[in-house]
Amino acid sequence: MTPDVSITIRDLCVRRGGKLVLPGVSLDVRPGVVTGLLGPSGSGKTTLMRAIVGVQVVESGEVDVLGEPAGSLRNRKRVGYVTQAPSVYGDLTVRENLRYFARIVAASDQRVEESIATVDLGDQADQVVRTLSGGERSRVSLASALVGNPGVLVLDEPTVGLDPVLRRDLWRAFHTLAGGGTTLLASSHVMDEAERCDDLILMREGRIVATGSPDELRGRTGQDDLEQAFLTLAEAA
Amino acid sequence: MTPRITLATAGRVLRQIRRDRRTLALILVVPPVLLTLFKYVFYGQEVTFNRVGPPMVGLFPFISMFLVTSIAMLRERTTGTLERLMSLPLAKLDLLLGYGIAFAGLAVVQATLTALVAFGLLGLETDGPVWLILALAVGNALLGMALGLFLSAFAQTEFQAVQFMPAFVLPQILLCGLIVARDQMARALELVSSVLPLTYAYDALARATADDLGARLAVDVAVLGGAVVLALVLGATTLRRRTA
After folding, report:
1. A55 and B12 in contact by Cβ < 8 A?
2. Strand partners, A13
3. Which end of chain B is least crowded, N or C, by CB within 10 Å?
Protein backbone atom coordinates (compact mmCIF):
# COMPACT_ATOMS: atom_id res chain seq x y z
CA MET A 1 0.00 0.00 0.00
CA THR A 2 1.35 3.41 -0.90
CA PRO A 3 0.99 6.20 1.63
CA ASP A 4 -1.32 9.00 0.56
CA VAL A 5 1.24 11.75 1.12
CA SER A 6 4.85 11.67 -0.05
CA ILE A 7 5.94 15.25 0.55
CA THR A 8 4.93 17.06 3.72
CA ILE A 9 5.86 20.68 4.36
CA ARG A 10 5.02 22.48 7.59
CA ASP A 11 5.58 26.19 8.30
CA LEU A 12 8.53 26.45 5.96
CA CYS A 13 10.32 29.78 6.15
CA VAL A 14 13.14 30.65 3.77
CA ARG A 15 15.00 33.92 3.79
CA ARG A 16 17.06 35.01 0.81
CA GLY A 17 19.07 38.21 0.79
CA GLY A 18 17.29 39.41 3.95
CA LYS A 19 13.86 38.94 2.40
CA LEU A 20 11.46 36.27 3.59
CA VAL A 21 10.68 34.61 0.26
CA LEU A 22 8.72 31.74 1.82
CA PRO A 23 6.94 33.12 4.89
CA GLY A 24 5.60 29.88 6.39
CA VAL A 25 4.44 27.46 3.71
CA SER A 26 2.55 24.27 4.56
CA LEU A 27 1.75 21.73 1.89
CA ASP A 28 1.11 18.05 1.12
CA VAL A 29 1.91 16.35 -2.18
CA ARG A 30 0.38 13.01 -3.16
CA PRO A 31 2.32 10.17 -4.77
CA GLY A 32 1.17 8.61 -8.03
CA VAL A 33 -0.02 11.85 -9.60
CA VAL A 34 1.50 14.81 -11.40
CA THR A 35 1.31 17.91 -9.25
CA GLY A 36 1.76 21.25 -10.95
CA LEU A 37 3.34 24.13 -9.06
CA LEU A 38 1.97 27.19 -10.81
CA GLY A 39 2.76 30.79 -10.26
CA PRO A 40 4.42 33.81 -11.81
CA SER A 41 8.17 34.13 -12.00
CA GLY A 42 9.53 35.18 -8.60
CA SER A 43 6.68 33.61 -6.63
CA GLY A 44 9.02 31.23 -4.79
CA LYS A 45 8.50 28.05 -6.86
CA THR A 46 12.19 27.31 -7.31
CA THR A 47 12.99 28.04 -3.66
CA LEU A 48 10.22 25.66 -2.57
CA MET A 49 11.51 22.95 -4.90
CA ARG A 50 15.08 23.43 -3.71
CA ALA A 51 13.87 22.98 -0.14
CA ILE A 52 12.16 19.71 -1.11
CA VAL A 53 15.36 18.48 -2.78
CA GLY A 54 17.37 19.57 0.27
CA VAL A 55 19.75 22.03 -1.38
CA GLN A 56 18.15 25.17 0.05
CA VAL A 57 19.20 26.73 3.34
CA VAL A 58 15.96 27.04 5.30
CA GLU A 59 15.30 29.26 8.29
CA SER A 60 12.66 27.16 10.00
CA GLY A 61 9.94 24.62 9.39
CA GLU A 62 9.82 20.98 8.34
CA VAL A 63 10.21 19.38 4.96
CA ASP A 64 9.67 15.61 4.90
CA VAL A 65 10.04 13.55 1.74
CA LEU A 66 9.06 9.86 1.72
CA GLY A 67 9.04 9.90 5.51
CA GLU A 68 12.51 11.36 5.95
CA PRO A 69 13.90 14.89 6.21
CA ALA A 70 14.62 16.45 2.83
CA GLY A 71 18.22 15.99 1.72
CA SER A 72 18.94 12.91 3.84
CA LEU A 73 21.33 10.40 2.28
CA ARG A 74 18.46 8.03 1.50
CA ASN A 75 16.48 10.83 -0.07
CA ARG A 76 19.43 11.90 -2.18
CA LYS A 77 19.21 8.43 -3.72
CA ARG A 78 15.48 8.59 -4.42
CA VAL A 79 14.70 12.23 -5.17
CA GLY A 80 15.48 13.38 -8.71
CA TYR A 81 15.87 17.10 -9.38
CA VAL A 82 15.87 18.87 -12.72
CA THR A 83 16.88 22.52 -12.47
CA GLN A 84 15.50 25.13 -14.81
CA ALA A 85 18.87 25.70 -16.49
CA PRO A 86 20.26 22.36 -17.72
CA SER A 87 22.88 21.17 -15.24
CA VAL A 88 24.95 18.70 -17.23
CA TYR A 89 28.54 18.64 -18.49
CA GLY A 90 28.71 20.49 -21.82
CA ASP A 91 32.02 18.90 -22.75
CA LEU A 92 30.76 15.31 -22.44
CA THR A 93 28.41 13.42 -24.73
CA VAL A 94 24.80 12.70 -23.77
CA ARG A 95 25.66 9.09 -22.96
CA GLU A 96 28.80 10.02 -20.96
CA ASN A 97 26.77 12.45 -18.85
CA LEU A 98 24.13 9.85 -18.13
CA ARG A 99 26.64 7.11 -17.39
CA TYR A 100 28.34 9.32 -14.82
CA PHE A 101 25.09 10.19 -13.05
CA ALA A 102 24.05 6.53 -13.28
CA ARG A 103 27.24 5.42 -11.49
CA ILE A 104 26.50 7.84 -8.65
CA VAL A 105 23.03 6.40 -8.04
CA ALA A 106 24.13 2.82 -8.85
CA ALA A 107 21.89 2.57 -11.92
CA SER A 108 22.60 0.16 -14.77
CA ASP A 109 23.76 0.97 -18.29
CA GLN A 110 20.39 -0.33 -19.45
CA ARG A 111 18.71 2.41 -17.42
CA VAL A 112 20.97 4.89 -19.20
CA GLU A 113 19.66 3.72 -22.59
CA GLU A 114 16.05 3.72 -21.37
CA SER A 115 16.37 7.27 -20.08
CA ILE A 116 17.89 8.42 -23.37
CA ALA A 117 14.92 6.84 -25.17
CA THR A 118 12.38 8.48 -22.82
CA VAL A 119 13.63 11.95 -23.75
CA ASP A 120 13.98 10.93 -27.40
CA LEU A 121 17.70 11.61 -27.74
CA GLY A 122 18.72 8.26 -29.23
CA ASP A 123 20.13 9.87 -32.36
CA GLN A 124 22.16 12.39 -30.36
CA ALA A 125 23.44 9.98 -27.69
CA ASP A 126 27.07 10.28 -28.77
CA GLN A 127 26.96 13.99 -29.44
CA VAL A 128 28.79 16.41 -27.15
CA VAL A 129 26.14 18.24 -25.11
CA ARG A 130 27.58 21.69 -25.86
CA THR A 131 26.69 21.20 -29.56
CA LEU A 132 23.01 20.44 -28.83
CA SER A 133 20.14 22.92 -28.95
CA GLY A 134 18.78 24.44 -25.75
CA GLY A 135 15.76 22.15 -25.76
CA GLU A 136 17.93 19.10 -26.28
CA ARG A 137 20.20 20.13 -23.44
CA SER A 138 17.28 20.40 -21.03
CA ARG A 139 16.22 16.88 -22.09
CA VAL A 140 19.71 15.60 -21.24
CA SER A 141 19.28 17.23 -17.84
CA LEU A 142 15.89 15.54 -17.44
CA ALA A 143 17.26 12.15 -18.50
CA SER A 144 20.08 12.55 -15.96
CA ALA A 145 17.45 12.72 -13.22
CA LEU A 146 15.38 9.84 -14.64
CA VAL A 147 18.33 7.47 -14.70
CA GLY A 148 18.10 6.66 -10.99
CA ASN A 149 14.39 5.73 -11.11
CA PRO A 150 13.61 8.31 -8.42
CA GLY A 151 10.55 7.86 -6.23
CA VAL A 152 10.11 11.63 -6.23
CA LEU A 153 10.84 13.73 -9.28
CA VAL A 154 11.09 17.50 -8.87
CA LEU A 155 11.02 19.33 -12.19
CA ASP A 156 11.62 23.06 -12.48
CA GLU A 157 9.96 24.28 -15.70
CA PRO A 158 10.69 20.99 -17.50
CA THR A 159 9.12 21.74 -20.85
CA VAL A 160 10.09 25.37 -21.49
CA GLY A 161 11.18 25.94 -25.07
CA LEU A 162 10.28 22.47 -26.31
CA ASP A 163 8.24 21.87 -29.43
CA PRO A 164 4.57 20.95 -28.87
CA VAL A 165 4.90 17.33 -29.98
CA LEU A 166 7.78 16.68 -27.63
CA ARG A 167 6.03 18.55 -24.84
CA ARG A 168 3.02 16.29 -25.22
CA ASP A 169 5.26 13.20 -25.25
CA LEU A 170 7.09 14.29 -22.12
CA TRP A 171 3.86 14.98 -20.25
CA ARG A 172 2.75 11.48 -21.27
CA ALA A 173 6.01 10.13 -19.90
CA PHE A 174 5.41 12.02 -16.65
CA HIS A 175 1.94 10.49 -16.31
CA THR A 176 3.33 7.03 -17.03
CA LEU A 177 5.87 7.53 -14.25
CA ALA A 178 3.14 8.77 -11.92
CA GLY A 179 1.05 5.74 -12.82
CA GLY A 180 3.92 3.61 -11.54
CA GLY A 181 3.74 5.34 -8.15
CA THR A 182 6.30 8.12 -8.65
CA THR A 183 5.59 11.51 -7.09
CA LEU A 184 5.99 14.24 -9.68
CA LEU A 185 6.13 17.90 -8.86
CA ALA A 186 6.56 20.15 -11.90
CA SER A 187 6.65 23.91 -11.87
CA SER A 188 5.42 26.15 -14.63
CA HIS A 189 4.54 29.76 -15.15
CA VAL A 190 2.24 29.04 -18.09
CA MET A 191 -1.34 28.09 -17.34
CA ASP A 192 -1.85 25.82 -20.34
CA GLU A 193 0.43 23.31 -18.64
CA ALA A 194 -1.86 23.34 -15.60
CA GLU A 195 -4.42 21.38 -17.62
CA ARG A 196 -2.00 18.48 -17.86
CA CYS A 197 -1.64 18.13 -14.08
CA ASP A 198 -3.75 16.05 -11.70
CA ASP A 199 -3.21 18.36 -8.74
CA LEU A 200 -2.38 22.04 -8.75
CA ILE A 201 -0.66 24.30 -6.28
CA LEU A 202 -1.04 27.98 -7.06
CA MET A 203 1.66 30.22 -5.61
CA ARG A 204 1.96 33.95 -5.42
CA GLU A 205 4.55 36.01 -3.54
CA GLY A 206 5.75 33.03 -1.53
CA ARG A 207 2.30 31.96 -0.37
CA ILE A 208 0.05 29.13 -1.46
CA VAL A 209 -3.02 30.73 -2.96
CA ALA A 210 -4.96 27.55 -3.66
CA THR A 211 -4.61 23.80 -4.11
CA GLY A 212 -6.80 21.24 -5.84
CA SER A 213 -7.42 19.54 -9.17
CA PRO A 214 -8.03 21.72 -12.25
CA ASP A 215 -11.74 20.82 -12.12
CA GLU A 216 -12.01 21.68 -8.43
CA LEU A 217 -10.39 25.06 -8.97
CA ARG A 218 -12.71 25.78 -11.89
CA GLY A 219 -15.72 24.70 -9.86
CA ARG A 220 -14.69 26.74 -6.84
CA THR A 221 -14.29 29.93 -8.85
CA GLY A 222 -17.00 29.38 -11.43
CA GLN A 223 -14.46 30.08 -14.15
CA ASP A 224 -13.98 27.81 -17.16
CA ASP A 225 -10.54 29.11 -17.89
CA LEU A 226 -7.76 28.20 -15.42
CA GLU A 227 -6.02 31.51 -16.01
CA GLN A 228 -9.23 33.29 -14.95
CA ALA A 229 -9.62 30.90 -12.02
CA PHE A 230 -6.09 31.75 -10.90
CA LEU A 231 -6.84 35.48 -11.10
CA THR A 232 -10.02 35.06 -9.08
CA LEU A 233 -8.19 33.04 -6.41
CA ALA A 234 -5.21 35.42 -6.30
CA GLU A 235 -7.46 38.43 -5.84
CA ALA A 236 -9.49 36.72 -3.13
CA ALA A 237 -6.37 35.71 -1.17
CA MET B 1 32.49 7.87 0.41
CA THR B 2 32.07 5.12 -2.18
CA PRO B 3 34.93 3.86 -4.39
CA ARG B 4 32.49 3.39 -7.28
CA ILE B 5 31.53 7.08 -7.17
CA THR B 6 35.09 8.31 -6.55
CA LEU B 7 36.40 6.42 -9.57
CA ALA B 8 33.46 7.45 -11.75
CA THR B 9 34.23 11.06 -10.85
CA ALA B 10 37.93 10.66 -11.69
CA GLY B 11 36.97 9.07 -15.02
CA ARG B 12 34.51 11.84 -15.77
CA VAL B 13 37.08 14.58 -15.07
CA LEU B 14 39.68 12.86 -17.28
CA ARG B 15 37.11 12.40 -20.06
CA GLN B 16 36.34 16.12 -19.94
CA ILE B 17 40.04 16.98 -20.27
CA ARG B 18 40.51 14.46 -23.07
CA ARG B 19 37.66 16.12 -24.97
CA ASP B 20 39.44 19.46 -24.67
CA ARG B 21 42.34 18.54 -26.96
CA ARG B 22 43.88 21.97 -26.92
CA THR B 23 44.11 22.20 -23.15
CA LEU B 24 45.50 18.69 -23.01
CA ALA B 25 48.13 19.57 -25.61
CA LEU B 26 49.08 22.73 -23.71
CA ILE B 27 49.40 20.83 -20.44
CA LEU B 28 51.65 18.22 -22.02
CA VAL B 29 53.67 20.28 -24.51
CA VAL B 30 54.29 23.60 -22.76
CA PRO B 31 56.50 22.29 -19.90
CA PRO B 32 59.01 20.50 -22.22
CA VAL B 33 59.05 23.54 -24.51
CA LEU B 34 59.68 25.91 -21.60
CA LEU B 35 62.48 23.71 -20.30
CA THR B 36 64.04 23.74 -23.76
CA LEU B 37 63.77 27.51 -23.71
CA PHE B 38 65.44 27.51 -20.30
CA LYS B 39 68.35 25.45 -21.53
CA TYR B 40 69.15 27.98 -24.23
CA VAL B 41 68.51 31.00 -22.03
CA PHE B 42 71.24 29.59 -19.78
CA TYR B 43 73.30 28.75 -22.83
CA GLY B 44 76.66 27.26 -21.83
CA GLN B 45 75.80 27.51 -18.12
CA GLU B 46 75.29 23.80 -17.50
CA VAL B 47 75.60 24.18 -13.72
CA THR B 48 72.70 26.60 -13.49
CA PHE B 49 70.53 24.56 -15.84
CA ASN B 50 71.26 21.41 -13.82
CA ARG B 51 70.38 23.21 -10.59
CA VAL B 52 67.13 24.79 -11.79
CA GLY B 53 65.97 22.22 -14.38
CA PRO B 54 64.98 19.25 -12.22
CA PRO B 55 62.94 21.30 -9.71
CA MET B 56 61.14 22.87 -12.65
CA VAL B 57 60.09 19.43 -13.87
CA GLY B 58 58.43 19.04 -10.50
CA LEU B 59 56.90 22.53 -10.32
CA PHE B 60 55.08 22.61 -13.67
CA PRO B 61 52.32 20.24 -12.48
CA PHE B 62 51.63 22.59 -9.55
CA ILE B 63 50.89 25.47 -11.91
CA SER B 64 48.95 23.42 -14.50
CA MET B 65 46.73 21.62 -12.03
CA PHE B 66 46.06 24.79 -10.04
CA LEU B 67 44.72 26.47 -13.16
CA VAL B 68 42.79 23.51 -14.54
CA THR B 69 41.16 22.69 -11.21
CA SER B 70 40.15 26.23 -10.37
CA ILE B 71 38.44 26.67 -13.74
CA ALA B 72 36.87 23.19 -13.71
CA MET B 73 35.50 23.71 -10.21
CA LEU B 74 34.23 27.18 -11.04
CA ARG B 75 32.36 25.67 -14.00
CA GLU B 76 30.84 23.03 -11.74
CA ARG B 77 29.54 25.85 -9.57
CA THR B 78 28.28 28.14 -12.33
CA THR B 79 26.66 25.51 -14.57
CA GLY B 80 24.75 23.92 -11.71
CA THR B 81 26.44 20.53 -11.94
CA LEU B 82 27.83 20.99 -8.43
CA GLU B 83 24.32 21.59 -7.14
CA ARG B 84 23.15 18.46 -8.94
CA LEU B 85 26.01 16.45 -7.43
CA MET B 86 25.20 17.80 -3.97
CA SER B 87 21.60 16.61 -4.41
CA LEU B 88 22.85 13.08 -5.18
CA PRO B 89 24.35 10.41 -2.90
CA LEU B 90 27.87 11.64 -3.65
CA ALA B 91 30.11 12.39 -0.67
CA LYS B 92 32.23 15.52 -0.78
CA LEU B 93 35.24 13.24 -0.41
CA ASP B 94 34.18 11.40 -3.58
CA LEU B 95 34.43 14.66 -5.47
CA LEU B 96 37.72 15.76 -3.88
CA LEU B 97 39.39 12.37 -4.32
CA GLY B 98 37.95 11.97 -7.81
CA TYR B 99 39.58 15.23 -8.84
CA GLY B 100 42.74 14.23 -6.99
CA ILE B 101 43.05 10.88 -8.76
CA ALA B 102 42.38 12.43 -12.15
CA PHE B 103 44.91 15.22 -11.81
CA ALA B 104 47.54 13.05 -10.13
CA GLY B 105 47.25 10.74 -13.14
CA LEU B 106 47.55 13.64 -15.54
CA ALA B 107 50.55 14.95 -13.57
CA VAL B 108 52.30 11.59 -13.93
CA VAL B 109 51.99 11.83 -17.70
CA GLN B 110 52.99 15.49 -17.78
CA ALA B 111 56.01 15.08 -15.51
CA THR B 112 57.15 11.88 -17.25
CA LEU B 113 57.00 13.54 -20.64
CA THR B 114 58.84 16.61 -19.35
CA ALA B 115 61.45 14.40 -17.67
CA LEU B 116 61.96 12.35 -20.85
CA VAL B 117 62.62 15.49 -22.86
CA ALA B 118 64.75 17.11 -20.15
CA PHE B 119 66.93 14.16 -19.22
CA GLY B 120 66.83 12.45 -22.60
CA LEU B 121 67.07 15.23 -25.17
CA LEU B 122 68.29 18.31 -23.33
CA GLY B 123 71.06 16.52 -21.44
CA LEU B 124 69.79 17.64 -18.04
CA GLU B 125 71.69 15.89 -15.25
CA THR B 126 70.81 15.20 -11.66
CA ASP B 127 72.65 13.52 -8.80
CA GLY B 128 69.43 12.30 -7.23
CA PRO B 129 66.93 9.71 -8.40
CA VAL B 130 64.61 10.81 -11.21
CA TRP B 131 61.72 8.75 -9.81
CA LEU B 132 61.77 10.87 -6.67
CA ILE B 133 61.47 14.03 -8.75
CA LEU B 134 58.49 12.48 -10.54
CA ALA B 135 56.90 11.47 -7.24
CA LEU B 136 57.34 15.01 -5.92
CA ALA B 137 55.83 16.32 -9.16
CA VAL B 138 52.68 14.34 -8.40
CA GLY B 139 52.64 15.73 -4.85
CA ASN B 140 52.90 19.23 -6.29
CA ALA B 141 50.06 18.51 -8.71
CA LEU B 142 47.88 17.55 -5.75
CA LEU B 143 48.89 20.72 -3.92
CA GLY B 144 48.00 22.82 -6.97
CA MET B 145 44.71 20.97 -7.36
CA ALA B 146 43.75 21.39 -3.71
CA LEU B 147 44.63 25.10 -3.66
CA GLY B 148 42.80 25.68 -6.95
CA LEU B 149 39.74 23.91 -5.65
CA PHE B 150 39.69 26.00 -2.49
CA LEU B 151 40.37 29.35 -4.18
CA SER B 152 37.82 28.74 -6.94
CA ALA B 153 35.12 29.25 -4.32
CA PHE B 154 36.17 32.91 -4.17
CA ALA B 155 35.93 33.52 -7.90
CA GLN B 156 32.69 34.46 -9.59
CA THR B 157 34.03 34.43 -13.13
CA GLU B 158 36.73 32.64 -15.09
CA PHE B 159 38.55 35.97 -15.44
CA GLN B 160 38.87 36.17 -11.67
CA ALA B 161 39.91 32.54 -11.36
CA VAL B 162 42.72 33.03 -13.87
CA GLN B 163 43.94 36.11 -11.97
CA PHE B 164 44.40 33.98 -8.86
CA MET B 165 47.39 32.47 -10.63
CA PRO B 166 49.58 35.65 -10.54
CA ALA B 167 48.09 36.47 -7.13
CA PHE B 168 48.67 33.17 -5.33
CA VAL B 169 51.06 31.12 -7.46
CA LEU B 170 53.61 33.63 -8.74
CA PRO B 171 54.60 34.99 -5.30
CA GLN B 172 55.16 31.44 -4.10
CA ILE B 173 57.43 30.72 -7.07
CA LEU B 174 59.35 33.97 -6.47
CA LEU B 175 59.82 33.22 -2.79
CA CYS B 176 60.34 29.45 -2.82
CA GLY B 177 64.12 29.64 -3.37
CA LEU B 178 64.15 28.72 -7.05
CA ILE B 179 65.15 32.19 -8.25
CA VAL B 180 67.10 33.47 -5.24
CA ALA B 181 68.18 31.37 -2.26
CA ARG B 182 65.87 32.15 0.64
CA ASP B 183 68.67 33.14 3.06
CA GLN B 184 69.71 35.87 0.62
CA MET B 185 66.27 37.49 0.62
CA ALA B 186 65.18 40.32 2.88
CA ARG B 187 64.56 38.74 6.30
CA ALA B 188 60.84 39.51 6.18
CA LEU B 189 60.43 37.70 2.87
CA GLU B 190 62.41 34.74 4.15
CA LEU B 191 59.97 34.51 7.06
CA VAL B 192 56.99 34.79 4.75
CA SER B 193 58.41 32.10 2.49
CA SER B 194 58.67 29.73 5.45
CA VAL B 195 54.88 29.54 5.72
CA LEU B 196 54.25 29.06 2.00
CA PRO B 197 53.73 25.43 0.93
CA LEU B 198 55.62 25.74 -2.34
CA THR B 199 58.80 26.59 -0.39
CA TYR B 200 58.78 23.05 1.01
CA ALA B 201 57.88 21.57 -2.35
CA TYR B 202 60.83 23.34 -3.93
CA ASP B 203 63.18 22.46 -1.09
CA ALA B 204 62.26 18.78 -1.47
CA LEU B 205 62.90 18.96 -5.21
CA ALA B 206 66.23 20.74 -4.72
CA ARG B 207 67.33 18.12 -2.18
CA ALA B 208 66.20 15.30 -4.45
CA THR B 209 68.19 16.90 -7.28
CA ALA B 210 71.30 17.12 -5.09
CA ASP B 211 70.81 13.55 -3.83
CA ASP B 212 70.46 14.94 -0.29
CA LEU B 213 68.00 12.32 0.88
CA GLY B 214 68.08 13.00 4.60
CA ALA B 215 65.77 14.02 7.40
CA ARG B 216 65.21 17.51 5.96
CA LEU B 217 63.75 15.97 2.83
CA ALA B 218 61.40 13.90 4.99
CA VAL B 219 60.32 17.08 6.80
CA ASP B 220 59.67 18.79 3.44
CA VAL B 221 57.58 15.87 2.22
CA ALA B 222 55.62 15.82 5.48
CA VAL B 223 54.90 19.56 5.25
CA LEU B 224 53.89 19.15 1.60
CA GLY B 225 51.53 16.31 2.52
CA GLY B 226 50.10 18.34 5.40
CA ALA B 227 49.55 21.34 3.11
CA VAL B 228 47.67 19.15 0.60
CA VAL B 229 45.42 17.77 3.34
CA LEU B 230 44.84 21.23 4.82
CA ALA B 231 43.97 22.72 1.42
CA LEU B 232 41.60 19.81 0.73
CA VAL B 233 39.88 20.30 4.08
CA LEU B 234 39.52 24.01 3.34
CA GLY B 235 38.24 23.11 -0.13
CA ALA B 236 35.70 20.72 1.38
CA THR B 237 34.31 23.51 3.55
CA THR B 238 33.48 25.47 0.39
CA LEU B 239 31.36 22.59 -0.94
CA ARG B 240 27.95 23.11 0.60
CA ARG B 241 24.99 20.78 0.23
CA ARG B 242 22.62 23.60 1.00
CA THR B 243 23.06 27.09 -0.38
CA ALA B 244 21.11 30.29 0.12
Report:
1. no
2. A23, A60
3. C
Do A106 and B4 count as a contact with CB atoms less than 8 A apart? Answer: yes
Quick check: B16 and A91 CB within 8 A? yes
Give Cα separations from A120 to A129, A140, A152, A169, A180 (angstroms): 14, 10, 22, 9, 20
pLDDT score of A2: 54
Which sign, positive or negative, has the C-alpha torsion A56, A60, A62, A68?
positive
Its ipTM equals 0.91
Q: What does the pLDDT read at residue A3?
A: 65
Q: Are B3 and B84 in contact (CB under 8 A)?
A: no
Instruction: Give B66 to chain A, closest Cα distance, Å.
Output: 20
Helix, strand, or coil (residue A88): coil
User: For the segment A83-128, what is each residue's pLDDT rounded down to a tens digit?
Assistant: 999 999 999 999 999 999 999 999 999 999 999 999 999 999 999 9
Which residue from A minimizes the CA distance to B95? A104
Candidates A160, A167, A228; CA nearest to A190 is A160
Q: Cα separation of A184 and A225, whole Å? A: 24
